[in-house]
Amino acid sequence: MDLLELFFVSLGAAVVVHYVVKLLLFIRILYPKIWFPLPKSFFTSMGEWAVVTGASEGIGRAYAFALAEQGMNVVIISRTKLTLDQVAKDIADATGKKVKVIVADFIKESVFSEIEEQLKDMNIGVLVNNVGMLPSFIPREFLEAAELDQTILKVINCNVKTMVKMCKIVLPGMEDRGKGVIVNISSGIASVPFPLYTLYAATKVFVERFSQGLQAEYKDKGIIIQVTGLQLFLHFFFKIFYPVSYSYFLSYRQWLHWGLHPNGRLSKNQHDDSVTRRLCKKLPAVS
Ligand SMILES: NC(=O)c1ccc[n+]([C@@H]2O[C@H](COP(=O)([O-])OP(=O)(O)OC[C@H]3O[C@@H](n4cnc5c(N)ncnc54)[C@H](OP(=O)(O)O)[C@@H]3O)[C@@H](O)[C@H]2O)c1
User: Fold this and answer.
1) Mean per-residue pLDDT, 211-226
2) What is the DSSP secondary-structure string of 49-115?
């Protein structure tokens, strides 16, 4: 084997090893229990209550269930009282934990003082900033969104302002107690510039940067702040085009288990990502 041949064989071997290692690291996500173990009492040790925004449906509902299954009482917040009451009943029946319902429309400025009042004196260990919305489900150029001024207000208030305000409400208590977990929901879409979902993608980049900066500020105070980036399109594809297979084969439980993995950059730079993985470990099947 001459020198050039040896060089290319070594290069090829290095590339194969690189991708095999990447694949093995990815496969760990499928077995969070083994690779990212946390003590059983981890969430309850953070505090008595978990707060989840946008919890009447979808991913927020699944988070609320998962946290109650981990032994926490949960506060669920969104606009529709009827749905929230039903979710509260389902969680209480399934887990025996307390569920507090707060009806709020995050688009309105006035809701935050009311929420702060309702959360006053509660020992909140976990906050999941889940609520979020698209300007329009159909991909569109920025100026083509219907009622643009209103849309800008709604998307920024829901996706950005609510997260910041909820952190402001919950962080002082966590700081006093020297512990707490905040999980902010971003999107896979934040990883690259995303024309036609520009406003939405930009708000999710804000979620990531805010979470990363906040984690750096509050890490030494015992508070864990993580951001997760969900992968968007598969979800919508199954939800819309295959509603039947979706509900059977891609329940939220599976979705969270397979698709909800923490943002790599934050995990690598700030701390390990075992908290979010632990939540994804065992979720109720919610179709
Ligand atoms: N689903 C995905 O594929 C995907 C992908 C990437 C990222 N994400 C992110 O994951 C999060 C959850 O997504 P999802 O698909 O589970 O959402 P979803 O099914 O549309 O649920 C949204 C939740 O937020 C509540 N909500 C909506 N507008 C609200 C408002 N103005 N005030 C208060 N509550 C409001 C809704 O309840 P009411 O209507 O009763 O208020 C509902 O409980 C979002 O931040 C989203 O950006 C989702």
Assistant:
1) 92
2) EEEEES-SSHHHHHHHHHHHHTT-EEEEEES-HHHHHHHHHHHHHHH---EEEEE--TTSTTHHHHH
Number of structural domains in the chain: 1
Taking the model in full, what pTM does it have?
0.81
pLDDT at 275: 58
Q: Is 75 exposed, middle or buried (0-12, 13-18, 19+ CB in 10 A)?
A: buried
Instruction: Quote the CA–CA distance of 46 and 24 in Å, as a whole number.
Output: 31
Average pLDDT over residues 171-179: 97
Q: Is the CB of 235 under 6 A from ligand 1?
A: yes
* Cα distance between residue 199 and residue 211, in whole Å: 19
What count of other Cβ atoms lies within 10 Å of the Cβ of residue 85? 15
| 202 part of a folded domain | yes
Domain membership flag for residue 189: yes
Range of the domain at 197: 40-281
Range 243-260 average pLDDT: 36
34 part of a folded domain: no
Question: Residues near 280 by Cβ (< 8 Å), separated by ≥ 6?
Answer: 32, 66, 256, 257, 260, 261
Which residue numbers are catalytic?
200
pLDDT in tens, 223-239: 999 887 765 544 554 44
Nearest-CA residue for atom 4 of ligand 1? 232
Q: Could you tell which of 105, 230, 236, 247 is best to mutate to test the pocket of ligand 1, judged by most ligand atoms within 8 Å of the CB?
A: 230
